[in-house]
Amino acid sequence: MAMDAETGDTEIEVSSINASKTNRDRIPKSPTGTEPPPLVARETVAARALLESWEHSEQQRDSEPYPIYASAEFFFPFLEDNASYRAPHIALWEHQGAPAGILVGRIMVARPKRALGPVAIPMPQLTTLEILHGGLESNSTEVAHRQLEYLRQLLASAEVDCISIHHLPANSEAGNLLCSGLRAPGDGNPTRSRRWLIQLTDANGQPLSSNSSKTRSSFRRQDRKLEEAFEGRVCVREVRTAEEVSAFIEAAATISEHSYHGGMGVGVCNNEHWRRILNIVAASGNLRGYLLNANGINIAYGVGAVYRGTFNAMATSFLPEYRTVRPGTFLLRRTIERLQNEGIHWFDFGYGGAAYKELYGNHCEEEATYHLYAHSRAATIARFTDALVLSINRGARRLLASAGVLDRLRQLWRRSLERFAR
Q1: Which of 2, 86, 173, 409 could disulfide-pair with 144, CB 3.0 to 4.6 Å?
Q2: How far is the CA of 404 from the CAs of 355, 395, 397, in angstroms?
């Protein structure tokens, strides 16, 4: 064991992971009684050791899309950014002494955020195990069964009121099992969505194109239109280092403030939250930020993090007064080209269903977010409220879509946010 002189973090060898086996007394045995219970850690040093042992195992699939959010190098530095945070919760399943499955989560004490359109709905305070995107992985159906049994027992133990599993791929081992519910069909009332990605390069690192020659020709015409509008004075600046973060945030936040992204609260802001995120990924060499400058004006930005061959997009926006020359998609195409030249395999668009993602994406994943509740009084109230809000929102969305006005209303709402920002 050693202490880092700069950070004060304690390093622990993988062989000493077994120190966390003291937690096993609290973990129920599996139904058959033959499989070992998971190794569980609820403090940072042991939790990091468990997660790193999983990452160093052969179970990681570098050729497939990989989110950064459940990685040790992002999860632990970012862990305490939320005031509702209480502790990490990492569980590692083994098979024949080797890592076979992982759960990456954190314990939060807060009131869940639910809303009917723009109207916030009050919720009770819950103790929640929040499992991050990419935070529930296993190498077999048998291990996934063991993971779900662990979640059942955790809810039954009254240690938590709720387990939230964010963006679980439907084709994953746990995702296949959870589609039938954790304890009963429909349990968790999941929110289902599609996630678009671009496969940028093949197995040999050669760039791939997901569009037809006709579409690519259309893109070139759009590019020329923007370049001509600014008499060719157009450039893309790339940001990677911590020294560049402050200036990038200032430029990106200025763009966000004038766009609907700022009104929705999804763009880069000049605040401690974004400074922390971008400095974390810059410190590990994973930051990729892009600014589109036209005639001396920053008119669009995009930012994300590269991890294990995947670019995880975090935020993007453009100045709405330049909408006609499509600066957002111009910057996206330049970003794709640079990532391909770097040999990155995947571009993950992240959350949200914007139409441009489907246009550029050549790979789609079905995913679901679950909120699984225990039987405490607060959890029962939250379950009822959650189901009611979700049902009303889904019904309203279907009604508007069937009337053919959903996309129009969404567009009007975004324009109103832009006008308010000005």
Answers
A1: 173
A2: 16, 14, 11
C-alpha to C-alpha distance for 312 and 67, rounded to whole angstroms: 7
Tens digits of pLDDT across the chain (422 residues): 333 322 233 322 232 333 333 343 333 444 445 778 999 999 999 999 999 999 998 655 657 899 999 999 999 999 877 778 889 999 999 998 899 999 999 999 999 999 887 789 999 999 999 999 999 999 999 999 999 999 999 999 989 999 999 999 999 999 999 988 898 777 878 889 999 999 999 888 899 987 888 999 999 999 999 999 999 999 999 999 999 999 999 999 999 998 876 666 678 999 999 999 999 999 999 999 999 999 999 999 999 999 999 999 999 999 999 999 999 999 999 999 999 999 999 999 988 778 889 889 989 999 999 999 999 999 999 999 999 998 898 888 788 677 776 666 666 655 555 555 55
Cross-strand bridge partners of residue 416? none
- pTM score: 0.84
Q: Per the structure block, which two tokens stand in for 138?
A: 């296993």
Q: Rounded CA gap, 59 and 316, in Å?
A: 32
The amino acid that residue 100 corresponds to is A
Domains along the chain with CATH numbers? 2-194+366-399 (3.40.630), 201-344 (3.40.630.30)
Number of other CB atoms surrounding residue 265 within 10 Å: 8
Whether 376 contacts 171, CB under 8 Å? no
Q: Where would I find the beta strands (DSSP E) of 240-327?
A: 287-294, 297-307, 310-318
Nearest to 287 by CA among 319, 248, 343: 248
